[in-house]
Design the sequence.
């Protein structure tokens, strides 16, 4: 007659053992996430610097190949990137301000026209009530412009975190570009006998991140240029801001494209009416189809190959845990996990230190 645990079915004992192990793993993962969130001022700059280094590393290697010292190559690549961004901002800022000031009255007129459409058949809503709500909304937006500015100015703590994080990210990017190989070699010293596997896995992860960032940047640039050309041909204002939004939206797959497209269609609707909005929507759909079926698989197929369902789940989890920043980092993190799982699947399981002992016991 069996007593204690031996009296329980095998499946029950297996489920119980797996359950408490899962709870321990979940608790450890939760502790790690809690630590990362509270150390975001340090963690986020490290991640940003790592992603930025993947973009600038080819430039650094080119400069080194032409005789530049390590420090000068890293500083030169970063300075070139900064000058490029500053030049673009200086070139587009005046036109953005002028077009926004022109678009504001058009937006108000568009809202009123939308109210008139809702009041006519087949909607037949109360025109007076709709117009009152629209007027209240416009007046609220005008009145809240001052409090919004005061709210931004009161966020001194957030501003301090952003500036501190930016400074740390810049310094880390410089050191990653200058001493990245030596830093990686130093970290490998702590891996012991698994150094070869750690080196191979780290190389694959960094290669996947590098390919993802460069590929998604090219995809965003492709979308921004083609959609910008379409907007120019249709005659939609704020072309440059929409192109910038489209470029950065590419770094948040699926949701980013939807948001950027919605902004473009709304601006076209306000500025040119229903026909322009329909033309912009058609152009966006064509560009997204070309990107999704041709460009994206070519650029991303060899780096981060994730099913759309995995991307949706990753974006949802990232948004819950980290908001916009979490959504931005969700797909790269999911890609890294995918690379690690693929590597583990390829490698045979490590030899158990208990195998010889078990064999000796069985022989005895």
Sequence:
């Amino acid at each position: 007659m069996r007593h204690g645990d031996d009296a329980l079915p095998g499946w029950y004992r297996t489920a119980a053992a797996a359950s408490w192990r899962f709870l321990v793993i979940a608790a450890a993962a939760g502790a790690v996430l809690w630590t990362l969130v509270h150390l975001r001022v340090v963690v986020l700059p490290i991640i940003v610097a790592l992603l930025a280094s993947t973009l600038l590393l080819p430039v650094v290697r080119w400069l080194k190949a032409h005789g530049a010292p390590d420090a000068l190559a890293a500083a030169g690549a970063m300075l070139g990137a900064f000058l490029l961004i500053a030049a673009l901002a200086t070139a587009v800022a005046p036109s953005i301000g002028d077009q926004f000031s022109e678009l504001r009255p058009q937006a108000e007129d568009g809202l009123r026209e939308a109210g008139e459409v809702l009041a006519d058949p087949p909607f037949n809503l109360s025109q007076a009530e709709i117009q009152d709500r629209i007027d209240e909304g416009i007046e609220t937006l005008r009145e809240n412009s001052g409090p919004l500015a005061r709210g931004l100015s009161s966020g001194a703590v957030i501003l301090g975190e952003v500036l501190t994080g930016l400074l740390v990210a810049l310094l880390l990017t410089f050191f990653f570009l200058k001493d990245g190989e030596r830093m990686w070699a130093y970290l490998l010293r702590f891996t012991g006998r698994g150094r070869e596997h750690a080196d191979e896995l780290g190389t694959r992860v960094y290669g996947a991140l590098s390919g993802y960032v460069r590929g998604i940047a090219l995809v965003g640039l492709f979308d921004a240029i083609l959609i910008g050309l379409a907007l120019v041909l249709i005659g939609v204002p704020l072309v440059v801001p929409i192109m910038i939004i489209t470029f950065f939206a590419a770094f948040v797959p699926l949701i980013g494209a939807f948001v950027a497209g919605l902004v473009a269609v709304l601006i076209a609707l306000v500025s040119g009416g229903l026909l322009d909005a329909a033309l912009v929507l058609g152009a966006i759909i064509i560009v997204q189809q070309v990107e999704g079926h041709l460009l994206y698989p070519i650029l991303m197929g060899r780096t981060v190959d994730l099913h759309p369902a995995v991307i949706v789940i990753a974006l949802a989890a990232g948004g819950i845990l980290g908001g916009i920043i979490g959504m931005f980092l969700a797909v790269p993190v999911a890609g890294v996990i995918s690379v690690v799982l693929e590597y583990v699947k390829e490698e045979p399981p490590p030899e158990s230190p208990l195998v010889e002992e078990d064999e000796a016991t069985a022989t005895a």
